Amino acid sequence: MTKAINKRIITAIICALLAVITAAFSVNIPASAAGNIGKAKAKSIALKDAKVKKKSATFIKCKLKKDDGVKQYDIEFLTKRYKYEYEIKAKNGKILDKEKEKIKNYKGNDIGKAKAKSIAVKDAGFKKSEVKFKKCRLDVDDGIRLYEVEFTKGSKKYEYDINSKSGKIIDKDIDYI
């Protein structure tokens, strides 16, 4: 009888341990606990290297990706005069690559996202209420600060690049989805 009770106790303990182990591995583990430095630390490393204060930066991208089997953070941010791009190793924060691009049209007022959307939609011949916006973000291309506006209407996708200072359409593309 004691052997049967001991077997039940051991079986119960093993089941409990398996349940705890299973629960531990099914929980979403934060990047830092998984051996990654995390997005906040990666951004901090890029800002420190660029000698830019956080309040002066506008982040437009911070994404964890794998390149040649190495996990890294792709980071892009803007200041008034420059666009910075960094690739930072996720495991230890080592800077793998960096670029700095001067912005030519930094002087003057920015038209803003709402105006950029309006310009694109009007050019396409629609009203804002008739389209579904997919993206509107500030970026720099060939030294020109611009808004990338993307929206869909029906079976077509519209992509616009709009100068962030003048509101001039730099490029547009219409594709079927």
Integer count of domains = 2
H/E topology pattern: HHEEEEHEEEE
Largest sheet: 4 strands, antiparallel
Count the beta strands.
8
The side-by-side strand order for the widest beta sheet comes to 1-2-3-4
**What CATH architecture of the largest domain do you see?**
Roll
Low-pLDDT parts are 24-29
Structural class: alpha+beta
How much of the residues is beta strand, in percent?
A: 35-45%
Indicate the CATH topology of the largest domain: Nuclear Transport Factor 2, Chain: A
H/I helix tally? 3
Radius of gyration: 25 Å
Query: Which bin fits the share of residues in helices?
Result: 25-40%
Q: Please, what is the average pLDDT? A: 88
Rough shape?
flat
User: Span from first to last CA?
Assistant: 71 Å
The CATH class assignment of the largest domain is Alpha Beta
Features:
3 helices; single chain; 8 strands; four-stranded antiparallel beta sheet; alpha+beta; 177 residues; Nuclear Transport Factor 2, Chain: A; flat
Describe the protein.
The protein has 177 residues and is of the alpha+beta class. It has 2 domains: 39-102, Roll (Nuclear Transport Factor 2, Chain: A); 113-176, Roll (Nuclear Transport Factor 2, Chain: A). It is built from 3 helices and 8 strands; from the N terminus they run ααββββαββββ. It has helices at residues 2-26, 39-50, 113-124; strands at 58-67, 70-78, 82-89, 95-102, 132-141, 144-153, 156-163, 169-176. The longest helix has 25 residues, at 2-26. Residues 24-29 have low confidence and may be disordered.
